[in-house]
User: Fold these one by one.
Assistant:
Number 1:
Amino acid sequence: MTLRDAARKLLEEHKVQGVLGYRKGSLPFRTRPYLFRDPCEIEELVFNPFCGLNLARYLLFLPQEVERVAIVAKGCDGRACVALVRENRLRRENLLILGVPCPGMVDTRKLAEWEGLKEHEVTLRGGEIVVRGVAYPLASFLDASCRRCRYRSPLVYDILVESGEVPSLPQEDTLRELRSLPEEKRWEFFRKELSRCIRCYACRNACPMCYCKECFAESHKPSFLHPSPTLRDNFVFHIGRAMHLAGRCVECGACERACPLRIPIATLFLAVSDTVREHFAFEAGVDVAAPAPFVTYREDDPNAFIR
Amino acid sequence: MRLSGNGVVVTREAFLEWLSRGRTFVTETVARRFRLPFPSVPTPKAVLLPQHEALYRFFWARRTWNVHPLPPEGTPILLLAAPCEVKAVTDVLDAVFLGNAPQDPYYATRRKNLILGALGCTFFEATCFCTRVGGHPLSREGADFFALPLSSGVYFEGEGVSGRPLASSEKEELEALVADLEKTAPPPFPEKTPEYLYEAFGRDIWEDIAWGCLNCGACTFLCPTCFCFDLVLEGRLRGAMIRTWDSCMFPKFTLHASSHNPRSYPMQRVRQRILHKFSYHPLRKGVFGCVGCGRCVALCPVNWDIREAVERVVSCAL
Amino acid sequence: MPCEGIYTPCLLPIAEIVEETRDIKTFRIPRPEHFVYRPGQFAEIFVPGVGEAPFSISSSPTERTFLEFSIKRIGSVTQALHRLNPGDTVGLRGPYGNGFPVEELLGKHLLFVGGGIGLAPLRSLVNYVLSPEHRLSFGDVFILYGARTPQDLVFRWELERWRKREDLTLCLTVDEGNASWEGRVGLVPNVLREVFPFPCTGWVSIVCGPPIMIKFTIKALRELGFAPGDILTTLEMKMKCGLGKCGRCNIGPYYVCQDGPVFSYETLLEMPEEY
């Protein structure tokens, strides 16, 4: 069954009151999130390599009348759904995960190098992307988080859509180069990038796991950091957020795609996720039942200070 | 004021040499279109209203509190911007910081020290909509000089650069360009748009229009006409009063100390943004508070398009 | 420039503090020479090390030597203010706002309706009108003031002073009385209907108080026959610069810090309902 058929059927049979999916955007190579309510709107549902936004972000912002919702989920979106259920933000029975195997999301900045590129001039063919008749390996066009993705297909789903040929691209270790640098060079990398940050909070607002009603960055009493984007305050914000997301980040890369200044901010969160994976053998959103390392209390915790 | 046709043509090298004589910056729009050897700023307001600046210092010393205002500073710089970005400075920022008494001395000093040049546009990008809000890609209005790249050099209107008069082929090129832009220009918004939007305040459509917006500050921070700022005191026994960019998209923007918040819902803040730019500012000052540069459309993480929002509200009214 | 820059406060010592109620205090500071203001205007008070906040000036401009601010303890700045003592330093920036349209009120009879801390900005105009140099320029004065409980009434000594005057009518009420309260009990809008039976020609009403009280008082005033242009009120919005620059305090196209905080009900009707 195609994605559209599955979504339409769900609405027609009133299994859900809405389908969270993507629609064509107002610009080439952009899509936008949309809550489909009527089966006849499903005509406009799309799924293509420009659907980088993590729709799970909207699961906590649905209109009241939508009790049960279906969500078009890539692997990472599916992980976010599971993580939100795990954190008791959502009821599993109110969520219908419409899984789509994901070929990886194309970094639209790469396409900007071709002037006046039209949408029909870009096609995907197996593990390749064809731009104006010339084929390139798809992997070189993907977002950083997609190049290292481990779960291209959602692990937990209610319906898995067949989407034809989805290339199984090798998983790259995109942080290897950064990790191999000496400490001063790594510091310089982050210092240079974070000094550009203007603290618009697009990264935070695009993240499905950042749902606090009042973010620590905006807290006045107590005040943890100042609104001015000095290097010090920028570090406090991003590192603080990385700590809050440790063990919760689903490695979708929505933060980096959202940044208007194209700061490679996902680098920080992906590095933290790798550390959690290494030291706690834990990945967020993969197993609904698995206890999350930083929010689970055990009487026999290995660390004495917390017992 | 469009180009008069009475300018001169200079070589690209001469133009670049002239620009290199002082501290020159280009906006990101210009940097994206042309390879110019000057540092770029993401938005023109960054040189007039810095992201954060200290206004005065305070400290406790010799058993008393002291306050030292910091003097306004500005070094001469030149900013090469697109005509829409120049319009943003003259129509909105100047009106607020200079036209609305009392004048802001920090802005005024930087403004006095700024040479603002317009680099004309030869085509409309998918995100451009300056002609919808009363602008034009070849407008010289408000700029200290105007330049336009031609196939054989740079057309220049202004002082300080000497060149040769336009050749007839160049005149034809300009005319063809003007005609082409006329054909492809997005049409202006309906005349009574500010009034229609104002009357639509209480309608039901806003929840639907606002859905999808993340309420981050990306659009407002990069927008050349957005000027909202916050005054924050940093420090206890010594510190400064800092002015930083603020955004009407943030939930705490209008939060009272009593915890009453007239714009606590995301929809209300999105509505405020649209109305402020396309209704309140034009009703107050006679010009749109948006210059159609299209940054917000290009940079929005969810492709929320303010043009579509305005069209939808206006079409409800019509 | 009075304080060296439009954003810089002048530092002044607190001369006196009066505890009005359990959470309202009136602060008196010396009035700088350059500080010329109209009733209804406000100023930004700066607490070193804490922050700044806008407060309406509750003393009349006819008081040449001091300024008074009646401040309710709500947030971090007001909390810090309430912990200060006479002699401590605060900063002053202002005056800002449009103030009451005193020229248009000349010769009119004035009905003041205040609720709770809302009496503070009204007091500035009341004492201006009652001052010897201005009293004869205005007609009758009727003051209706109410609070939730007798302990919440502010300016008790001022109310006594007003009650003793023969050239005004003062009516007090509380929402809930207590054992020692012998006065009227009732919500301000209801009491208004009872005590103001005059035809309202030649009267202008000035209302200030919590938003809900303003809403119902205006309703009652309309029933009594007041035209929208003859009802004035002051609005509150979160403010920072006070100068019409930071863009925060707008209600529709109106900036509360420059076009307000005093607005007529006529203008309120044109505004989007967002306050």
Number 2:
Amino acid sequence: MVKSPREGGLSERLFDALIDDFPDHRPGTRPVHAVGIGADGYFVPSHVARRFTTADHFQGDRVQVTVRFSNGSGSPVENDPALDIRGMATKFLLPSGPTDLIMSSLPVFFSRTPQDFLDFAGAGEPKPVKALPRWSCLTDRLRLRQPRTPPGPDTPDNGVAGVIAYADDHPFARAGTIAALTQPAPTSYARVTYHAIHTFRLTDPDGNVHYCRFTWEPVAGVRPETRSGLPEDYLHTELKQRLMRAPVRFVLRAVVGGQGDALDDPTVGWDTTRLRLVMGELVLTELAEEGGGASERLSFNPTRVMRGFEVSGDLVLAARGAAYEYSCLERGGVGCQLGRGR
Amino acid sequence: MTTTRTDSWTQVLIGRVVTQPMEWLLVQFWKRLAPVKTPTWAWKTAPADNLQQCMNLVMPLADKTAVGRAKAAGAVAANVDEIFTGLSNVGTVHFARFDLIDGNLCMFSVYDGDLENYIRDFISVFGSVFDALMEFVEHKPPTPCRLNPEAFIDWVNAHDAFQIRGDVPSLFPNERKIANLPRDVVLLLEQHPNVQLGRYSAYPGLSAAQIRLATGVDW
């Protein structure tokens, strides 16, 4: 029987396992997505949205939001050009209290259960990178494989070999692992599609339940970075300059799951034939603050949801919720506790 | 400019004389040593599983010259009314078009429902068009297709492009190593020269009938 995420110190173990993946982790920062930048704006729900959910932020009025964009790494050293997952955490500032929507550039996750998540995090602990055999490029080509990249002087150790070995043994982790290891740096945080990964349970005004997955699609379009030699903070600089020129916009889309879809398993994607709804538009108008201010301390939690927009039975989502709360308290964050401190 | 042209020409020559024959040999070797199975899709029960399906029929022309292609184009043009009326009468078709691509007459369509039933429908309502088109196609099925539906369905299945659905790892559930997935893809494509890699719909999950009704163009 799978333990509830709050049992057995799972949050603490998950937090510790993630910190172990980043040896230069600095206390007081997030265990992952340590480097980020905040932006403020508002969300305008579509008239379609309220046919599918009674949640307050979809009922028609403009809602103030604060957003934190981030790099996936738990290292406190900013390295925007690195191959990494990007995050977009949104807090809807409703009169009844805030509710969050956490997304990343990863389309599917690599764990089905909290224990898988813990094991995957353990597999990602950095280990010295072995030098490739002299003829590896040739042997890879003869095997019709992608030639491996030799380790560089800046990466004497990493967790890539560990997670690949884990994914070899655990097929459910493969799609997420491949996505995580092949995410190119974007030209801008505003030019990435972000996915909520987990399924959420929406209730419409007639009491019907719809299981949905969410994405933020950038109005500016998706564009990976192809230039080399960019500054380590180019994504932050670009966002500041972009917001000085014009607002940044994203469209919130919901995909409605059907019978037979994996509702509680974030490692499995849904078919593109599923009904897709426009839920509204996000407009970011200004930076939240300069430097590591309020949004860096602010708690975002994927299980901070509300009536009409609730969590599914996804155990990984529940585990993430508890781990985010624990992590927030550990780093002295603001508004950590769910249902309180809003 | 001259240098660029020379380099490019050299690369083309090396590709044709060395790289491509070597790749062909490697594919022949690996398809014997580590063959891959063409994936089949698990049938699910969501209504959307049966909506906006794609058929990408690639029919090699017997005569691939401009004269042969013009004859095939003429046969399509001569039957436009029958095609349009037939597709309307089938009722489940979102889009259909005929293209001439590299010596092939192609029929690409998006339809609701099951492929075999779709084929049966169009055989019954405008099968004579296909009988006319088959005159220009190599290795044609027995005609008239209306009297040979099973043979025609088999022929369509054989000429319908293979469709890749989902992510790459899910195509090869028996693969033991991530590093081998690129090779698995090569071996899969070796089995299927014509492949639909993906698709997009602006309004997934809706049938042709629902769209016509919702937009007020049908009753």
Number 3:
Amino acid sequence: MHAAKIEHDFEPKVIAFVCTWCTYAGADLAGTSRMQYPSNVRVLKFPCTGRIDPVFILRAFQKGADGVLVSGCHPGDCHYMAGNFHARRRFAAFRALLGFVGVDLQRLQFSWVSAAEGGKWVEVVTELTERVRAMGPMTEFKSLETEEQWSGALTTPELKEAFDSVG
Amino acid sequence: MSRIGVFVCHCGENISRTVDVERVAKVAGEIPGVAYSCEYKYMCSDPGQNLLKKAVAEQKLDGVVVAACSPRMHEKTFRKAAAASGLNPYLCDMANIREHCSWVHEDREQATAKASDIVKLMVERVKKGKALAPITVPVTKRALIIGGGIAGIQAALDIADCGHQVLLVEREPSIGGHMAQLSETFPTLDCSQCIMTPKMVDVANHPNITLYTFAEVERVEGYIGNFSVTVRRRARSVDDEKCTGCGVCMTKCPKKKIPNDFDRGHGMRSAIYVPFPQAVPNTPVIDRENCTMFQSGKCGLCAKVCGPGAVDFEQEDRVTVEAVGAIVVATGFKLYSIDRKPEGSPIQGYGEFGYGTIPDVIDGMTFERLASASGPTGGKILRPSDGREPKQVVFIQCVGSRAREKGISYCSKVCCMYTAKHTMLYHHKVHDGQAYVFYMDARTPGKGYDEFWRRAVEEEEAVYIRGMVSRMYQRGEKIVVMGSDTLVGVQVEIEADLVVLATAVQAQEGADLLAQKLGISYDKYNFYSEAHAKLKPVECATAGIYLAGACQGPKDIPDTVSQASAAAAKVMTLFSKDQLERDPVVAKVNEKYCVGCLACKKVCPYGAVEEKETRDRQGNLVKVTAYVNPGVCGGCGTCQATCPSKSVELDGYTDEQIMAMIEAL
């Protein structure tokens, strides 16, 4: 009955920043409809995509996310009237900046998923997960983070090993 | 160090089937700051809630995470339980390991890992959470009902009878909606107008109801208990204060050959008109596009004959702002337009049925008008083309409904019953006539419904043919209907005098635009979405807005009336208190850091941000900062993401909380 489970050598970490009214509810609908999608995604709920600070996306990449999804209501459907428009404008600028500092923009996905679109949620998450899986781990920001945390010089092999294990 | 309790729910087997709940509870117990963790079969049950209450008291917990279903389902339940045990309810959060985990993943290992991660995120969130006190706001005890069909009328009467003020806004010149157009209603065959018009009159005469017809809602601002609604009353060109409703103007109007929408274009009306004789209010409207006075500036007969001098060609639209505390949306439905593909719509028409090209192919609502005593034929069933009595009538069900390839996959619910009714009405009026019905399934759940359908088949001699029609064409005076009888397995050809199509019920014209004004959600067919399909069937996700009738999905009259009364009950519950407690998820400004750039004011969709002046003792202005009015703030947090100095913070979603969650990834 179930499709054979595919073994992957790399399980990416995908973080989704979603609004509570549309996309979170859409993801709930995917659940109530018992649709299946990769378990790599972790969902952070916000009242509105307008609340999402670009810093959160940077931090997520830094803390080991291989892909980030930002998803909210369709234009015109925002529970707060215009929050998603503010988000859209903000991320359009932020995306350009992120590209400029060298992040592959394929890792960052924006989408509109309404409360009625359980199927679209599954599609979006699956597509992003598989794309990021093919791209491999996101290392740029992660090593930066480790260096930030690690003040001393890596003088002995033990320290070097410990450092690598953190990264 | 925090003392957080984690409660992992099995949800019967819904969660435990794919998630190893014991392991999740064990892993959670090891998270720094977690003082207590356990798992239980049904956390939402009474013993489950008691378990939580007991643990909070005994373990002196200062935060709770319930790992169970979606917070949209039970967040309130558990927050209430937490509050009962003395914990601030906003320090209780849910980790959604059912909808977002156990139901969508099959692999037990992966699902368990994900569930543990979700719990961890929520623990970090609760750790950084703050105790919040609910905000109280006054409630304006006046309801707005949008739509004056049977749903709006019922809700208006119920609320008004309870002693509250009601404003009923209707787009058409008269209230009554689709029900006023019907001839007789299933399953009792009582005359629709006989049961409808007294209610319409009640609305007009009720001291607590203000009725605005020929009016539309333009703008909605505010929030539960405190909406401010802009209503545009379009110019009738007749002063409703002066008009007595005598109707002389209509008899004198020289333009009398305008197809009447109320009769589906089969009756005629004058340019100054009321849609139907029993209209409420019975103040006429001038149809400016067809009025000679408006088109050429010459005529004005109606004004000359009007005794009270009510006709006013100069009248303009009146726009008023109304304060209301609750809104009931009862905008109803429209019927599927079958002749062509509506512009810009993914839904396709039924050109093959010849509607619009063959005059004797009509839709169900037109048949209602033909059968109605107040209709264009005075209740006689006559063909539109030559006015003869049809002896063979073919009814086709599911025209538009349950046709995925045409763009609508849902069942319109009422067509099986009204087609059965049509066959009966036809048989009662044309004794030697024969009715044929092409159907896919006969769906007749409802009190007395199946008995009604059986009566149509067994006693009223309607011939039911299970199958669809493939083609129709005119041959002489007859319409040849070709279809298949799938039960017998033969092709059928019927020479019909009249064909009646049972067209699908669709969301009202402009339903999406109204939803956007109201800030409520709608599904892909533009039907409005309820907050919960089973447990909150009349509430919208937006607080203070309720649904009644077919604007939510196809419904028959009994269901519509029940739902309207239910919506009214919800409004009355809201109005039973003078003060309303609101979710304290609102933004607050830290004046110490605010530089007064007021970027937040520009992005705030609610206009909740005000300028606050700080002055010294001499009264000199020291600085201007932003201030968020907690009563008006909707809690979207756009201001916080916009603030360049990070000096505004949304309670419940602070940067600290979100960063802690990201750190925990």
